[in-house]
Specification:
14 helices, Rossmann fold, 46% helix, Gyrase A, domain 2, 452 residues, alpha/beta, Four Helix Bundle (Hemerythrin (Met), subunit A), 3 domains
């Protein structure tokens, strides 16, 4: 089925470096005609006779026109990223030059690659499994040390290695159980039910750990949204500026200065926190624009992962704060109470962290509390599920394992166990890409950049 994918035999070409002006641009070709195409454009040397993994300096020419002086890198199949013949042309980083070289390759028979097609070919040629291929996209998109480590771990095999081993063991037991069915009249047992039961229990532990890691994986991949909520002039914009160490939001003594939400990102212990400075919430205002801002603030509060409810210690009593806290709890909102301007007012608030955003007091403690309230696992270099597709399949695997275990507990016959085993194998194979279809592949690789 995989070899029937449209365009499978084409030679593809794309810019592998970001578009724009730079010192160098890299253009990549992959496919059976890669060497002959570049050889026809590179009169300096007969590239078809050169060894793999070698570099060659010379001029790219189309007809008699010199396009650029380049370095050509040769990678012969199967020892290349895609498993096909691959050529990389390092040219000067002028967008005009890059486009000319690209067009020359297309004129000689290559076609422009689709998004992620190089990595898709690597997968189809067995250089990567599907989780490793998806991890390549995650690594390109990584913007913290934690997301980088999670992606690299999965590129090296990650949890797919564990699933592959489980798949092989399940296949073995499935074959033995089905063999028993062929000898059903002789009352023989080829599959050791005790060892099979132990395998299922071990698989359940592994699957549950992976499922539980998804919350952390979601944090690593997408960050945490933090809505800064409070009445006008509580110091929300000042707090945002202090956390960012820059004047991002306008600060004024005039109530209602912030009319719309402002979003910025900070990194706390390798986790991205998306800070949302909202319009001050007050019940009665005649300003239509401010009213719209207040509605947006309430919407952000409900959708945020955590709310920092900021209040001016000079304007609140402990009773006022208790009412706010009960309201947040009633709405099931994850929150921290932050008392601002503590350098000038009361400090009699037991459940609140007291700070002075203007004087930068208590900011370190605020970051620590914010991290502790949202990140509930240690971020280490181990198997973490960051992909919703994997999470959905793991849930199906968990259900299948539970059904197999129930069947073993009830001592049901092998022919009734087999469907649940096959179902479990199906979802394991869906994750690793052992079985897949063109629709799934198009979805996965469409999220890649063109040159990868």
């Amino acid at each position: 089925m995989l070899n029937n994918l449209s365009g499978w035999d084409d030679t593809i070409v794309a810019l592998a470096t970001p578009p724009g002006i730079g010192a160098i641009g890299v253009i990549r070709l992959s496919g059976k005609e890669s060497f002959s195409i570049i050889n026809s454009l590179f009169p300096s040397k007969e590239l078809l006779k050169q060894a793999s993994h070698t570099l060659h300096v010379g001029f790219i020419k189309e007809d008699d026109k010199v396009l650029d002086e380049v370095v050509v890198s040769l990678f012969k199949n199967p020892k290349s990223y895609t498993g096909e013949d691959v050529v990389e042309i390092s040219c000067h980083g002028s967008p005009y030059v890059q486009q000319q070289v690209l067009q020359a390759c297309i004129n000689k028979g290559a076609r422009l690659a689709k998004a992620g097609e190089f990595t898709q070919r690597a997968f189809l040629n067995g250089k990567l499994d599907l989780t490793q291929a998806e991890a390549v996209a995650d690594l390109i998109a990584s913007n913290t040390s934690a997301s980088q480590k999670a992606a690299l771990h999965n590129i090296r095999g990650g949890f797919s290695d564990v699933l592959k081993q489980l798949r092989e063991e399940l296949i073995t037991f499935s074959a033995l159980i089905e063999l028993e069915l062929d000898f059903s009249q002789e009352d023989v047992e080829f599959a050791d039910r005790k060892k099979f039961y132990e395998l299922i229990e071990k698989a359940q532990v592994i699957t549950n750990e992976l499922l539980e890691s998804f919350q952390l994986g979601n944090v690593i991949r997408n960050g945490i949204s933090v809505a800064i909520i409070g009445k006008p002039n509580a110091g929300k914009s000042t707090l945002l500026n202090t956390l960012l160490n820059e004047d991002r939001a306008i600060v004024s003594d005039i109530a209602g200065t912030t009319r719309d939400t402002i979003e910025e990102v900070i990194n706390i212990n390798d986790v991205l926190f998306r800070l949302i400075d909202t319009a001050g919430i007050r019940e009665h205002t005649s300003d239509i624009i401010e009213s719209i801002g207040v509605e947006k603030s309430l919407a952000k509060m409900r959708s945020a992962d955590i709310v920092l409810y900021l209040f001016d210690v000079n304007s609140y009593t402990a009773e006022d704060l208790l009412k706010i806290e009960k309201d947040l709890q009633r709405q099931q909102i994850n929150y921290l109470l932050i008392g601002n301007k503590a350098d000038t007012g009361s400090t009699n608030f037991e459940n609140a962290l007291l700070i002075s955003a203007k004087q930068q007091q208590g900011i370190k403690e605020l970051k620590e509390k914010l991290f502790a309230a949202t990140v509930h696992n240690d971020i280490a270099e181990n198997a973490v599920v960051t992909n919703s597709r994997h999470h959905a399949a793991l849930q199906k695997i968990s259900e299948s394992l539970a059904a197999i275990k129930t069947g073993l507990d009830k001592n049901i016959s092998g022919d009734l166990l087999t469907p649940d085993i096959h179902r479990c194998l199906h979802y394991i194979s869906e994750i690793t890409g052992t079985i897949t279809n063109e629709t799934v592949l198009d979805y996965v690789f469409s999220k890649f950049c063109i040159g990868k």
